[in-house]
Design brief:
The protein is α+β, with helices and mostly antiparallel strands and 158 residues long. Helix content is 44%, strand content 24%. The strands form two sheets. It has a four-stranded antiparallel sheet with strand order 1-2-3-4. Helix 1 runs antiparallel to helix 2. It starts with 20 loop residues before the first strand and ends with a helix. The N terminus is likely disordered.
Length: 158
């Protein structure tokens, strides 16, 4: 019998959380950092491998363009890795990329992550839905536990 199930075979409820609590995706953070290290490492190696003669043929505008795209990629990866969901006594904070949204507990009607969905969706009292990229399905069991914890908090605080 797996360690995460009880005698009935059901998955036990996760323990209660002390607030504030933050959920962050692990897989995308690892991939983002690995992407930056690999990309910048490759670019640095290629620049060094060109030799002084080839490097001297690059104009200031070409070097500036390379630096611009390097910074652009850094900003995009930073937006991805900063995604999170924060639970506080007052409510929920959802950070997706560079957008930060704050909700009172009464505004959050339900928390869902159907099979095949990439991340959690929050259904709001006004009929809108909000994606919460801080809990991503790619994290496997960790994301399922986070969804159960967030559902429990939503039910307790509403």
């Amino acid at each position: 019998m797996p360690a995460v199930s009880d005698a009935s075979g059901a998955t036990p409820e996760p323990p209660s959380l002390a607030l504030p609590h933050t959920w962050r995706p692990v897989g995308p953070r690892i991939m983002g950092i690995a992407l930056l290290v690999a990309l910048y490492g490759l670019c640095g190696f290629c620049w060094w491998a060109f030799g002084a003669t080839a490097r001297a043929q690059f104009s200031g505008g070409e070097i500036g363009t390379l630096i611009f795209f390097g910074v652009l990629i850094l900003v995009a990866v930073y937006a991805l890795v900063r995604s999170r969901v924060e639970a506080h006594d007052e409510g929920l904070v959802v950070v997706n990329g560079f957008r930060r949204r704050q909700f009172e507990w009464a505004e959050v009607v339900s928390v869902s992550m159907p099979p095949g969905a990439p991340w959690v969706t929050l259904d709001l009292a006004d009929g809108n839905t909000v994606s919460a990229m801080g809990i991503q399905a790619s994290d496997g069991n960790r994301s399922r536990v986070a969804v159960r914890q967030l559902r429990r908090l939503t039910a307790e605080k509403a």
